[in-house]
Amino acid sequence: MNPESPELTVGELIDQLSALDHEATVQLAINPFFPMAHRIAGAVATRDENGQRLVFLADGDQVGHLPPEVAVQLTWQEPTAAPPRSRRRAARPDGGDG
User: Fold this and answer.
1) Nearest residue to 30 via CA among 9, 58, 2
2) How many Å apart are CA 8 and CA 83, to the nearest integer?
3) What are the pLDDT digits (tens) for 22-65?
4) Which H or E run contains 14?
5) What DSSP line would sit under 34-77, residue for residue?
6) Domain range enclosing 69
7) Number of separate domains in the chain
8) What is the pTM of this model?
Protein backbone atom coordinates (compact mmCIF):
# COMPACT_ATOMS: atom_id res chain seq x y z
CA MET A 1 0.00 0.00 0.00
CA ASN A 2 1.24 3.47 -0.85
CA PRO A 3 1.99 5.26 2.47
CA GLU A 4 0.86 8.55 0.90
CA SER A 5 -2.55 7.16 -0.08
CA PRO A 6 -4.91 5.04 2.03
CA GLU A 7 -6.26 3.46 -1.15
CA LEU A 8 -5.13 0.12 -2.52
CA THR A 9 -4.49 -0.22 -6.26
CA VAL A 10 -5.46 -3.27 -8.32
CA GLY A 11 -1.74 -4.01 -8.75
CA GLU A 12 -1.11 -3.85 -5.00
CA LEU A 13 -4.10 -6.11 -4.36
CA ILE A 14 -2.90 -8.60 -6.98
CA ASP A 15 0.59 -8.58 -5.40
CA GLN A 16 -0.89 -9.28 -1.95
CA LEU A 17 -3.22 -11.99 -3.26
CA SER A 18 -0.45 -13.59 -5.35
CA ALA A 19 1.46 -14.39 -2.15
CA LEU A 20 -1.51 -16.37 -0.79
CA ASP A 21 -3.02 -19.79 -1.48
CA HIS A 22 -4.63 -19.54 -4.92
CA GLU A 23 -7.30 -22.08 -3.94
CA ALA A 24 -8.43 -20.16 -0.83
CA THR A 25 -11.88 -18.52 -0.80
CA VAL A 26 -11.89 -14.71 -0.66
CA GLN A 27 -14.26 -12.80 1.63
CA LEU A 28 -14.62 -9.18 2.69
CA ALA A 29 -14.06 -8.03 6.26
CA ILE A 30 -16.77 -5.45 6.98
CA ASN A 31 -17.35 -2.96 9.83
CA PRO A 32 -14.53 -2.67 12.38
CA PHE A 33 -17.01 -1.97 15.20
CA PHE A 34 -19.03 -5.15 14.59
CA PRO A 35 -16.70 -7.25 12.41
CA MET A 36 -18.49 -9.51 9.95
CA ALA A 37 -17.41 -11.61 6.96
CA HIS A 38 -19.11 -11.24 3.57
CA ARG A 39 -18.78 -13.02 0.26
CA ILE A 40 -17.58 -11.06 -2.76
CA ALA A 41 -20.31 -10.99 -5.42
CA GLY A 42 -18.21 -9.57 -8.25
CA ALA A 43 -15.96 -6.79 -9.47
CA VAL A 44 -16.83 -3.82 -11.70
CA ALA A 45 -14.43 -1.38 -13.38
CA THR A 46 -15.56 2.24 -13.82
CA ARG A 47 -14.36 5.82 -13.44
CA ASP A 48 -15.12 8.34 -10.70
CA GLU A 49 -16.45 11.86 -11.27
CA ASN A 50 -12.88 13.06 -11.96
CA GLY A 51 -12.23 10.37 -14.56
CA GLN A 52 -9.98 8.33 -12.27
CA ARG A 53 -10.20 4.58 -12.81
CA LEU A 54 -11.91 2.61 -10.04
CA VAL A 55 -12.70 -1.01 -9.40
CA PHE A 56 -15.57 -1.86 -7.07
CA LEU A 57 -15.81 -5.20 -5.31
CA ALA A 58 -19.48 -6.00 -4.79
CA ASP A 59 -20.53 -7.08 -1.31
CA GLY A 60 -22.33 -10.40 -1.43
CA ASP A 61 -24.22 -12.01 1.40
CA GLN A 62 -23.01 -12.03 4.99
CA VAL A 63 -21.51 -15.34 6.06
CA GLY A 64 -20.90 -14.77 9.77
CA HIS A 65 -18.69 -13.06 12.32
CA LEU A 66 -15.14 -12.18 11.40
CA PRO A 67 -12.66 -14.40 13.28
CA PRO A 68 -11.13 -12.36 16.16
CA GLU A 69 -7.57 -13.00 14.94
CA VAL A 70 -8.48 -11.36 11.60
CA ALA A 71 -9.87 -8.26 13.36
CA VAL A 72 -6.60 -8.07 15.32
CA GLN A 73 -4.48 -8.40 12.14
CA LEU A 74 -6.54 -5.61 10.54
CA THR A 75 -5.89 -3.52 13.69
CA TRP A 76 -9.65 -3.20 14.24
CA GLN A 77 -9.32 -4.73 17.71
CA GLU A 78 -6.61 -5.16 20.31
CA PRO A 79 -5.40 -8.67 21.07
CA THR A 80 -7.19 -10.00 24.11
CA ALA A 81 -6.66 -12.94 26.40
CA ALA A 82 -9.25 -14.77 28.40
CA PRO A 83 -9.47 -13.46 31.97
CA PRO A 84 -7.72 -15.60 34.57
CA ARG A 85 -10.00 -18.11 36.21
CA SER A 86 -9.98 -18.59 39.93
CA ARG A 87 -9.90 -22.11 41.26
CA ARG A 88 -13.36 -23.28 42.21
CA ARG A 89 -13.90 -24.85 45.60
CA ALA A 90 -14.92 -28.47 45.49
CA ALA A 91 -18.17 -29.44 47.15
CA ARG A 92 -17.78 -31.62 50.22
CA PRO A 93 -19.07 -35.17 49.78
CA ASP A 94 -21.28 -34.86 52.93
CA GLY A 95 -22.84 -31.59 51.64
CA GLY A 96 -21.55 -29.62 54.64
CA ASP A 97 -19.79 -26.27 54.63
CA GLY A 98 -16.93 -27.19 56.83
Assistant:
1) 58
2) 37
3) 999 999 999 999 999 999 999 999 999 999 999 999 999 999 99
4) helix 10-18
5) S-EEEEEEEEEEEE-TTS-EEEEEEEEEEEEEPPHHHHHHTTSS
6) 10-73
7) 1
8) 0.67
